[in-house]
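Reopening this one. Same input as before:
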Amino acid sequence: MSSDSDSDGWTDEEPEMPLYEDGCRCLLCPLALPSPEAVFAHCGEQHGFHLASVHAQHPLSFYSYIQLVNFVRRTVENGSFSMEEVLAGKFLCEENLKTHLQDDSLLCFDIDSYLEPQCNGDTHETLQKTTQESPEMIQVPKSEYESLKRELADLRRKLVQSETLMNEASREMSVMRDVTQRLMECDDVTSGGDMSLAASSANEDPDQYYFDSYASFSIHEEMLKDTVRTESYRSFIMDNPALFRSKTVLDVGCGTGILSLFAAQSGARQVFAVDQSNVAASARAIVQENGLQETVQVIQGKVEKVALPVKFDVIISEWMGYFLLFECMLDSVIYARDHLLRPGGTVYPRRYSMALCGIGGRDSSLREKVAFWDDVYGFKMSCIKQQLRREALVTEVKPESVVTSSHVIKHFDLLSVEHDYTDFESPFTLTGTADSDVEIEAICGYFDVDFAGDSCETPVAFSTGPGHAMTHWQQIVFSLSRPMRLEQGGSVRGGIKLVRNPQDTRSLIITITTPLETSAFALR
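Same output, byte for byte:
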């Protein structure tokens, strides 16, 4: 079976590279040391910077540790570093989540595992010593001290979260004021003139309509209720914990955050969930409602534009659209792979294929959809029939409608796919499977997903083709103006070509060629 593919076959996982092969730069001087442990030992011995002391004053979580590293690097570089400001907690602000030193090895360090043996018991001894030296201090039992310390850390975390939400609200209000002002300046709008200027001012990002469509909860309900989709992701993540345990994970286009929650449950060390849609606010609330805010951070914005403090071991995304490529969200996943995935990291699901089959006379539903326009409450609307034939139809194709074999037209491996993935053409051959002569009235398109092949403990895959459990993607039908007669066991050859729609870069134009015709279809 021939096909146009990215490679002759699936490739194995790329070998993991040493994490600190270029060394780790000291926080306070240009010296490069072999590991983060060596950096912090050097900082204590040579610069009097003791991480355990900072942790005793401000218990370091994954986020606050990143804030500390970026704060120290920035203030050392501009000459304003002060240990007093560090101990006062000046590093605990959102701006310090932005990476200061590109590819900073310290940001990939598992700070929790390092601090546990460093600080176990030390803070209480320090408190006892301080109490003896300063009669103004109050000595408390260690268990009570630890409880108070946890409560204080939780209050600090909530304060940072509240400040972040306030900053986001302030930015949104600023945008609203700006849009309102520009709308008021468009005098011709109120007088019934051209509204295009106002529309373009209020929606300068041509992609915003796409992201706004995902602010509706109904679409997320539909996707979550798609058990093939959601349970496949859950099975892969939960049944393969070795792929996620102690890893940093990026969820591209997180929606309600369900994949991030699965990753956190599977043992991920830290998960960043990114979505441009306003559903991100709900995802953040969902994370907090389920007590996973220490592991999962939700960020609203385009993954191509947000500032993320680390590179990632794993990128996971449910980016697929109708016929796999509709909406072209794979653009964002490719960007994340090229800019945010660390060497040796991987993307899940990893492998995809697109396929075609012929459908015909065993099911009259397609003919009924077309014939409907011949008599609509006694009126002829046959012009719509012609337009209908120029659009790819998203619908359920019953397995009894399929009259040919399937042909794979394209393979994708997300570790190697390039930005021109939407533009390709492929020949296809469809062989009759019916026990008699049939007519091929339409071509059916669908896709299959393989999360990781045999490289994981529990392989997971699913198909959106006819005869498999239905998904919200359904199938795509390309109606033929001239049905093809196919003898029993006979074959027919054709071709398919995909390109992006230049008028709407998230939609596709698909051209089907058969021995009888060449027809272009819009998938939008």
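So the earlier flakiness isn't reproducible anymore. For the record, The first strand starts at residue 4 and ends at 5.
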